[in-house]
Design goal:
Elements: E1 13-18, E2 22-27, E3 30-35, H1 47-51, E4 54-55, E5 60-63, E6 68-71, H2 72-76
Length: about 90
Amino acid sequence: MLSKQHGANTSAIEVTNVSSHGFWLLWNNEEHFLAFEHFPWFKDANISAISNVELQGKEHIHWPDLDVDLSLDIINNPDKFPLKVKTK
């Protein structure tokens, strides 16, 4: 017997798993791994803050609790966008 689908997926983006090395973000039926090595802003964040993620626009992802904004290009190609620290 086949089950009927109860409705459309209302979550356009979500965190599906967190490990000691990073976390997986499900977006448009694709999983993207964000390694803490490349995205250090998430390393010491609690799971609640990492999971509070919003899709703003076509390719703009925002974590309001952490004040972090990323694009799909940055997530898929972190080496093209090296971290830069400004010092006074």
